[in-house]
Amino acid sequence: MKVDNSSSAAVTRAVSTLRAILIEIGWDPKRDDQTAGFVVEFDPPYIPVAYAYAAISPKLEMFVFYLNFGVAAAAERRQETARFLSLANWSLMSGNFEMDWDDGQVRFRSSICFQGTDLSGTLIRNAIRFAMNAVERYAEGVIDVMARGKCAEEAFQKIDSAEDLANNLSDEATDEEAE
């Protein structure tokens, strides 16, 4: 794909907007000199997430956001971890969990293609928020499988059951308010 001047300008604006949003969130983004991206390191204990990586791909005109877990799956837990991540991914409308089979590193990825338009701060915030919500929902299950030896289905069912209970309690509260 040939990059024209308007495309180059949109990428420059996107990188600037991304940096501003990361700062607005209250993070301390460090520029990655190898890419059009930023690394945000989180405070210890690094569980579940150690750092985020947010970048603009100039060639693809795409924003990508990764939340990288602070613990990796041991070799003997990778198959079960992959099974859990597949169950979680099946439930997601957007984004996905990934695992590097070589080292067991787990991350969540959210992305937005902005070809032909400007990448707004709202879209960046939404992609980050979605990723954070997905990790918040499934992190305990990921850790249960990777580090606590639980089976994928059991860990996933525990999350699904807790969500069903929360939804039922919310529905009951709404019903009581209506009466």
Proportion of residues in β-strands: 15-25%
Question: Structural class, judged by helices and strands?
Answer: alpha+beta
Mean pLDDT over all positions = 90
Largest sheet: 6 strands, antiparallel
CATH class: Alpha Beta
Q: Number of domains in the coordinates?
A: 1
What is the string of helix and strand elements? Answer: HEEEEHEEHH
Number of distinct helices = 4
Brief descriptors of the model:
179 residues; alpha+beta; Yope Regulator, Chain: A; six-stranded antiparallel sheet; 50% helix
Characterise the protein shown here:
The protein has one domain: 2-Layer Sandwich (Yope Regulator, Chain: A). The protein has four helices and six strands, in the order αββββαββαα. α2 runs parallel beside α4 and α3 packs across α4. By secondary structure, the chain is an alpha+beta fold. The protein starts with a helix and ends with a helix. It has helices spanning about 5-25, 80-90, 120-150, 150-179; strands spanning about 30, 35-40, 50-55, 60-70, 95-100, 105-115. The chain has a six-stranded antiparallel sheet with strand order 1-2-3-4-6-5.
Layout: helices, strands, pairs:
Elements: H1 5-25, E1 30-32, E2 36-41, E3 49-57, E4 62-69, H2 78-91, E5 96-99, E6 106-113, H3 121-148, H4 152-178
Helix pairs in contact: 2-3, 2-4, 3-4
